[in-house]
């Protein structure tokens, strides 16, 4: 593990002088300078549409481009821009440069080039993590060893840069090795980053930067896939499909709750957290389970145990992207207008 400090000005200077071909790999930007009023709000429902990220406190952040994937951290939104509409919400094993968008509309090229599906932020917004596929020591075939990178956004320091459990460039054919594994940042807490490495699952302590392999049988705290999340994360509530697209919620003690959706029909299908379930509000001439082409659909958010709901009107007819790694809705693309 090695620690370095870089600032945005270094990245911009290198780009301006043409010192490198393609994306410049410079390390971490200083995103929360001394005297800053503090980081952006990371809690609650966050969504993006039409190149704008909407935070739960009402703040909007214009990315200047449609988005493939993003996280809210530090002083803004770190994201991969989409080159076309087909790329919106799509991340994978390819690399792209991470950009930083601030609430004031400033968009900065950070110089960080990471595997797109690996971008993560700690829940408190203090740390940013990803996997760098192009900066490590090369094997005999010219393939760099993958490196786990974690940045402390309050200081601009890389607290982790490690190739631990990513293969041996002296002995391994890294291309062949990486074809058989799924490298990823599996999860983050405020204290720990969990990484699916090539030869094991590592937990990096963000206070020390040290990594240790998880014992066999132990799993990182990764939420289940959103499409399977009919049960709340704490297991206290379960979504029950209802007739005519009117889903209900059942508590562990058997109590039935009909959400106050404020619409004729609705579907609930994913949990944001223990208390908040998301879905689709449907209004229009359609009846029952049939979705009429003239129906209007939008993102719906309901809370338990009150059953109070809000229709996120600004999502009507939009393609909505949720942040990566934040919750059960990680990376999901909600397409208003599709059949729920």
Describe the structure.
This protein has helices spanning 8-17, 174-179; strands spanning 47-49, 52-54, 60-62, 67-73, 76-81, 95-101, 107-115, 120-121, 127-132, 147-152, 157-162, 184-188, 192-196, 201-205, 211-213, 237-240, 248-251, 256-257, 265-271, 276-283, 296-303, 309-312, 319-321, 333-335. It has 340 residues and is mainly beta. Strands 4-5-6-7 form a four-stranded antiparallel beta sheet. The longest helix is centred in the first third of the chain and has 10 residues, at 8-17. It is globular and about 65 Å long. Residues 1-22 and 30-36 have low confidence and may be disordered.
Entry summary:
This protein has 340 residues and is mainly β. The chain has two helices and 24 strands.
